[in-house]
Amino acid sequence: MTRFPRIDPVGLDGLLVRFGDALSEPANRAALAFRAGLERDAPTGIEECATSLVSTFVRFDPLGISLDDLHATLTERLSAQDWYCADLPEGRRRLHIPTVYGGDHAPQLAEAAEAAGLTEAEAIASLSQSEVRVTTIGFAPGQPYLGTLPEAWDIPRQTALTPQVPVGALVVAIRQLVLFSVTTPTGWRHVGQTRARLFQPESETPFLLRAGDVVQFPAISAEEFANLEGDGIRVEPLT
Amino acid sequence: MSALEILEVGPGVTVQDSGRPGYLGEGVSRGGAADRLALAEGAALLKQPVGAALEMAGLGGRFRFGRAARIALTGAPMRATLDGVPLRWNASHAVPAGAVLEIGGVTQGVYGYLTVGGGIDLPLILGAMSAHLAAGISGPLQAGDTIAFREDPGGVSGLGLGVSDRFAGGALRVLPSLQTDVFPKDMRDRFETDHFTRDTRGNRMGVRLKPSAEGYGLEAGGRILSEVITPGDIQIPGDGAPYILLAECQTTGGYPRIGTVIPADLPRVAQAAPGAKLRFRFVSREEALAAERAYRTGLDRLRAQVAPLVRDPHDINLLAYDLVSGVTDGEVMR
User: Which of A129, A130, B137, B172 has the fewest CB atoms in 10 Å of its CB?
Assistant: First the structure.
């Protein structure tokens, strides 16, 4: 059995601090809090930090600081507190992203609901009332993974890909949601549609979401969706 | 400020600089020139800081200069002429106002670079000028586009640079990755003795390699928790054919990785054209660090290695051209 947390080299210029080998709330919390700590008080030689679901990645200049020295610094920081119950980073926000579920906008709601053992109405109620955390941003620019949903949503990804989901698509699998920043094929099921634009490169605020933010996807009707002014998203500080 | 007018252009010509580090946590990979060494060589030939250049995948284009300029041609060698007169690659040249530069197909390698004296001048997006096709930041250049470049403080042209041959595949040095140990020992041994062929599938995100015989797919380890990806990572997807990630890769991935190509050898990966042979060799961290040191020292020495093009029968036309153009103050010719 691998013991966590653990630190491993990634290529020549990276170190990865892993808090688990599966998604869990405490391990995700640890990764987010550990990264925030590194960014608040950056050890010498660190060039960039990022998080995945349950890990913190540190990129450094391998000629500027030795791997062993940085490893020692990170080990010391790990032992300074229990990261699995650390406070989440400050400055998090709550976003309400209006979502139309099912119908022509999101044709896989019915099959996703069936896989979860729910009626369509129950599925919409469950998804629209769930409060989920941005567990990580990754794969594509500004693209969030959100979790975790109630246990019923522990449904597998499809073996065949959905050929194309549009920008702003809300998809579900393995107790997580993903909101797509680009048009893409996917193995996740398309259950909702939003007007969220997650990455706008030429905007002053190019990224809509940050890891740690809390999101709800309240249900709106197809008619309300058609009449939305802008993206309809409401953002408030999380206290 | 002056402009380079694009008359015709190949499908894979983009503006590239050193990319945008610092956005990994937002899902944006660093991007930037596929062959960073070629970017540095272009800057050294013009004796200017590393900035943005035109990166030309496989095929260049026809470019008209609005005013006199200096240019450098580096990276994968391509057929180039200035108003019909052949130009040497890995060299700097003086271009008179109104001249038309024509850059054809690569003769070896994949990515050629056109650097302009003073440097390309575009608005910064997230701190860089680079197009990032996968992220939807800017895009390939089109005929009719114009590219502004900064005032050139001037300097010599007609200089050349001997470059390391990295345009025909070869051996790649590899460090272990997070999942290297998931691959059985005999498979790792075979991986080091195999001769791989660069597949036709490849772009700025990464390149696929074909094993000589059996692949490297894992029966059980096909699904790991999605984890950070760095350029150079060698993913083994279900088909068992290695896929080496490059500058514009996605930021996370769930395929097991058998190793990571060291940064100093990434230009060689990017410049391996379809059909090129590639091999892998695991190295110690000490050896990888020594290679990185040598790579950076090499970058620092580029300017000192730039030397006037030697006059030989092949160059006479070119030199004559530069002499009559009369646009380069202090041009060195011997």
Answer: A129
Interchain CB distance below 8 Å, B227 and A55: yes
| Cβ partners under 8 Å of residue A221, min gap 6 | A100
- Are B83 and B45 part of one and the same domain? yes
Report yes or no: A103 at the B interface, CB cutoff 8 Å.
Answer: no
Q: For residue range B100-145, what is the model confidence (pLDDT) as tens digits?
A: 999 999 999 999 999 999 999 999 999 999 999 989 999 999 999 9
Q: What 3-state class would DSSP assign to B320?
A: helix
In a shared domain, residues B123 and B24:
yes
pTM of the model: 0.91
- Rounded CA-CA distance B162/A169 in Å is 51
Specify if B333 maps to a domain: no
**Judgement on whether residues B46 and B105 belong to the same structural domain of the protein:** yes
Select from A110, A107, A95 the least CA-distant residue to A169: A107
Do B137 and B183 sit in the same domain of this protein?
no
Cα dihedral A157/A160/A164/A165 (nearest 10): -20
Average pLDDT in chain B: 91
Is the CB of residue B40 less than 8 Å from the CB of residue B102?
no
Percent of chain A's residues with pLDDT above 90: 88
Query: Does B299 reside within a domain?
Result: no
Yes or no: say if A16 and A57 are a contact pair by the CB < 8 Å rule.
Answer: yes
Contact in structure between A153 and A171 (CB atoms under 8 Å): no
If asked whether residues B8 and B125 sit together in one domain, one would say yes
Cβ <8 Å between A63 and B285 = no
Q: What is the DSSP annotation of B73-92?
A: EEES-EEEEETTEE--SSEE
Identify the residue among A12, A70, A186 best suited for mutation to test binding to B, counting B beta carbons within 10 A and taking the highest.
A12
Q: Note whether B147 and B11 are within 8 A (CB).
A: no
Residues of chain B with pLDDT under 70: 1-2, 220-223, 311-334
What residue in B sits closest to A199 (Cα-Cα)? Answer: B135
Separation CA B111–CA A128 (nearest Å): 48
Q: Specify whether the CB–CB gap between A26 and A54 falls below 8 A.
A: no
- A6-85 is classed CATH 3.30.1360.40: yes
> If you write DSSP's letter for every residue of B170-194 in order, what string do you get?
EEEEEE--TTGGGS-HHHHHHHHH-
B300 domain residue, yes or no: no
Q: For residue B128, give the DSSP letter.
A: B
Q: For residues B209 and B102, state if they share a domain.
A: no
Interface confidence, given as ipTM, is 0.91
First to last CA, chain A: 38
CATH number of the domain at B273, please.
2.40.100.10
Domain A93-237 CATH superfamily: Cyclophilin-like (2.40.100.10)
Q: Show the domain range for B197.
A: 170-294
- The answer to whether residues B75 and B222 belong to one domain is no
Could you tell me if A135 lies within 8 Å of chain B, comparing CB atoms?
no
- Best A8, A10, A174 member to test B by mutation, with max B CBs in 10 Å, is A10
Pairing of strands B170-175, B277-282: parallel
Q: Are residues B218 and B316 in the same domain?
A: no
> At a CB cut-off of 8 Å and minimum separation 6, what does A199 contact?
A140, A141, A142, A143, A181, A206, A207, A208, B27, B28, B135, B136
